[in-house]
Amino acid sequence: KLRVTSDPDGSSVMLDGQRVILLCSNDYLGLARHPALEQAASSAMKQYGFGSGASRLVSGNSPLHQELEERIALFKGTEAALLFNSGYAANTGIIPAVASTGDVVLSDSLNHASIIDGCRMSKAQVHVYRHRDMDHVEDYLKNAAYARRKLIVTDGVFSMDGDIAPLPELVRLAEQYGAMLMVDDAHATGVFGRGGKGTVEHFNLEGRVHIQMGTLGKALGSFGAYVAGSRSLIDYLINSARSFIFSTALPPALCAASIAALDIVEQEPELRNRLWKVRARLAEGLTSIGIDTKGSETPIITIMTGDARGAMSVSSLLLEAGIFAPAIRPPTVPEGTSRIRTTVTALHSAADIDAVISAFSRLKQEGYLPDGPDRG
Ligand code: PMP
């Protein structure tokens, strides 16, 4: 069911008349309430009004759309970039544009729903490989020699488990078998890499991933999405990605806010450091009380409950303790893997995190959570 939250401050939110610790937002750097974004958006609104009035290819293309795309290309170190109205629109626009009849797409079994839908919308033959299983990818590539084009697509950070794609191995396989590689960096943009540029920077793979998609609505605190790549890829998408062509352009004020967010990501690396410190405090605290964090390597930390009812009980007991972390159940995740998915932000205080750890510790003692691995 839909819940109404209000008055967010980056670490907490009002829910049902109560201020609760917000442990499920993707506003990783706390930029959604940053005065620089508000200021940039409101001065752009004075100049451009609110709505863009038409699609980019008609009259909706403002100087701010162009400027943001240039900034994203510079930030990502690619020749060009293109905006989409959301990450969902990006994945369902890009994949059918680059893969069609006669092509083969290889997609990780835990990829985001928007990638799954993009694959379904393409007319390509789609093979789903076991999560992060490079032998499985290679088997499919060996059998796809007949394909006109081959595309491997993966989340950079997997949104439900918080683990990272084995990008160096995927790059090697893509190069060996002549496949294109597409990475969805929705949860890595602003978070991973020394400059916050995402998983490609994290693994030093600049120039070796053909299609880098990312979102502006998570760590950048704004809204919308982008794809970064070669000039020819971007020119091609402008005239072939249907979700780009047939949809009203983002409001210019949103572009202004995204530019302000990129300034902060580039100029204030300490925000990212703070996020990783908060993440370490939570991960270490949970591990110390015997909770298995399931191989999470990111600010997304998943606590398994097994069945859906268990997840619902844990979520409502957390809420009673003043912590908002919803239960994630099938079909969002596979059967038997219901969970509490927690995310931290740079704005959580040590006291917030300690309150979360002690709530989980109580739930563990009361038998609501399965045992983690034996720490002997
Ligand atoms: N890809 C991934 C990995 C995501 O987690 C999300 C958002 N949950 C999206 C794409 C979609 O992005 P948006 O919310 O901008 O539509």
* Number of DSSP E strands: 14
- Specify the biggest β-sheet: 7 strands, mixed
State the secondary-structure class. alpha/beta
Small molecules bound in the structure, each named once: 4'-deoxy-4'-aminopyridoxal-5'-phosphate
How confident overall, as mean pLDDT?
A: 96
What is the rounded Rg? 21 Å
Q: Residue share in helices?
A: 25-40%
- Total helices: the number is 13
Strand share of the residues?
15-25%
* Terminus-to-terminus distance: 42 Å
Spell the H/E element sequence. Answer: EEEHHEHEHEHEHEHEEHHHHEHEEEH
Give the spatial strand order of the biggest sheet.
4-10-9-8-7-5-6
Uncertain segments: none
Q: What characteristic shape results from the CA principal axes?
A: globular
Structure report:
- There is one protein chain.
- The longest helix is centred in the last third of the chain and has 20 residues, at 269-288.
- This protein has 376 residues and is an alpha/beta fold.
- Helix 2 packs parallel to helix 10 and helix 11 packs parallel to helix 13 (350-365).
- The protein is globular and about 55 Å long.
- The strands form three sheets. The chain has a seven-stranded mixed β-sheet, with helices on both faces.
- Strand 2 and strand 3 form a beta hairpin.
- It has 13 helices and 14 strands.
- The structure holds 4'-deoxy-4'-aminopyridoxal-5'-phosphate.
- 4'-deoxy-4'-aminopyridoxal-5'-phosphate binds next to helix 3.
